[in-house]
Amino acid sequence: MMVVNVKLMSMFAKYLxxxxxxxxxVEDGTTVCGLAEMLGLPLKLVRIITVNGKQEYLxxxxxxxxxxxxxxxxxxxx
Amino acid sequence: MKNGYWQKMLRVDxxxxxxxxxxxxxxxxxxxxxxxxxxxxxxxxxxxxxxEPYGLQNLLIFATGPLQGPAVPGGAKFSIVGISPLSGTFAxxxxxxxxxxxxxxxxxxxxxxEGVSENPVYIQIVDDDVRIKDASDLWGRDTFETTDAIHExxxxxxxxxxAIGPAGERKVAIACIAVDKHSFAGRCGLGAIMGxxxxxxxxxxxxxxxxxxxxxATHELIKKYQKLINxxxxxxxxxxxxxPGICETAEGLGDMPIKYWEQDVWPEGAKKLxxxxxxxxxxxxxxxxxxxxxxxxxxxxxxxxxxxxxxxxGPEYETLGLMGTNLLIDDPKVVAIGNDIAxxxxxxxxxxxxxxxxxxxxxxxxxxxxxxxxxLELRWGDSRALxxxxxxxxxxxxxxxxxxxxxxxxxxxxxxDSVAEVVHCKGLDFxxxxxxxxxxxxxxxxxxxxxxxxxxGPCEDVEMGGFFIPEVGIKExxxxxxxxxxxxxxxxxxQDLGVLINSLVLCMFMVDGGDWSMxxxxxxxxxxxxxxxxxxxxMLAGLxxxxxxxxxxxxxGYNKAADILPKKMFQSAxxxxxxxxxxxxEGLMEDYYDLRGWDENGAPxxxxxxxxxxx
Lengths: 78, 615
What we know:
The complex is a heterodimer.
Chain A: E1 2-8, E2 23-26, H1 32-39, E3 48-51, E4 54-56, E5 67-71
Parallel strand pairs in A: 1-5
Antiparallel strand pairs in A: 1-2, 3-4, 3-5
Chain B: E1 8-13, E2 18-23, H1 26-32, H2 35-46, E3 60-63, E4 78-83, E5 90-95, H3 99-105, E6 110-114, E7 121-126, E8 129-134, H4 143-154, E9 160-163, H5 166-169, E10 177-179, E11 183-185, H6 190-196, E12 199-205, H7 215-235, H8 238-241, H9 247-252, H10 267-273, H11 277-281, E13 285-287, E14 297-302, E15 310-313, H12 317-322, H13 332-345, H14 349-365, H15 383-395, H16 407-414, E16 424-425, E17 428-429, H17 441-447, H18 460-465, H19 487-504, H20 508-511, H21 518-529, H22 535-555, H23 585-596, H24 606-611
Parallel strand pairs in B: 1-6, 7-12
Antiparallel strand pairs in B: 1-2, 3-4, 3-6, 4-5, 7-8, 9-10, 9-12, 10-11, 13-14, 14-15, 16-17
Helix pairs in contact in B: 1-2, 2-19, 2-22, 7-21, 13-15, 19-22, 19-23
């Protein structure tokens, strides 16, 4: 097992309500996709992912202590 | 005709107080569609030299397109076009509510105001009955009071009212035009042009219905697309949170202005300002324009604290950026009050927020002191500074009067070193989107025909919002953050799309957020007009409109030398998503000019003009 620090932005925040400190325990080898599914995120709406400040994609394998941000689409910048 | 147009233009000469009706050639509509494209062509044909924006010669053009007749989702829009007093460039600004469909129902596609009235007037249009009425008793009233007074005086609450406030009357160069008290033709200061013409408001209602090519198909498509858009905006929560929903994402990607573009990150501020916190703290509900399935505008109710008790229109994302993070203000209730002050005075909330941010930076640097401001301390995060300065700018009073000609002109009077700190293109203050985050915005802003505008080329939404236009080759992976490849092509396609959407005239959010594809838009367009346009045909009309907007600017002396970005855009972030990144500006601009078919001065080549039937 390992711990990943997760930040879910804007409308995704509600999917992290059971993890108030954002620290999520996951199995070794878990991908962003696996973690997102575990949290119940609607994958269709996942727009941008960063891990430790770098843009990544759903198939990125996570490591202990990673800082993961998941952004929904920014709709309505007008 | 049966093509969604009356092919009629109402022209009101304010000098003589006479109105005439002219016909519009079908070819012009086929070439330019309507709205911002057609308005640009009218300006090109009627203005033969650089003019004084506040003078007799400037025109104020209110233009619809083919989609304002039937109840098309997102079709309750119209464009206002003229030469901007802020930048001296071509300007178009769009608004919603019910005004566009009302002009169409009155039997006109376009209204042109020319000349200058000797006394304050408002214009009342009900079908063929066009009246120029005395507005002496309305002069001095705010935008909301003016709208209510016109409804009361006429006894006609069905009138849709486009009104200016004290800012427009006093020719403040960032004055907006308020429509039905909840939609604002905000940018470029066209409210000041209305004020210079002594026109307080244009109120319109119609009882006619323009004929369309295929009424049955039009009706069925409207029902189909209302459902499609409704499903999309429930799922992606655009209806629930409106534009404030993007604050946290925009800040997280380095897109939001913080401390007048000097600070790189402020996640806690953006989180407090945006949805879902905004929705809860302000009791926000959707407020739709006519025929709109989204309702992105916000109706809010603030119950406490006492000093911020308020019920009315809530701020948009752009205002949360410029009056919020830009000023290090993190309370959406404070922004709501600042927004309301600006709306009532008739001020563009984007430029007003930018001016306050610029003033706070100057205060911090000692270029402005309390000796200049009559004791007002312009400190970051100070709500009183925001409220007071916006009020002064809107009324052209006190220290705020220094901003009456725009931020750039104010800087010249504040301190010589402050001029380079102004964040603008061609005099138009930046909106809440940072080209250092989505670099396709760099050529978009630099070449924008009205200056720095993300909404005449919403390219940032491709990367940030997953807004793709596969019909023109804009797909997932077309561009990557911070990489030069395809960014200028994206900018161009989005600029052409921006002109097209504002020519139809359609709300951008139907396609950008509402999941309405451009193929769907073409299908709707063809049911209304019967012209059998492909997406490429529509995009060509957008390109033609953009080019004509540029030609207006070239006539008035703008060239490649004006296609630049301000100094701050070349400062890299030290932290956050765009840390250490730089805009490859020269390369992007080389790509841009090559793709546009413009010469070394930034003017369309003869060949380009010929291809667009503009030669």
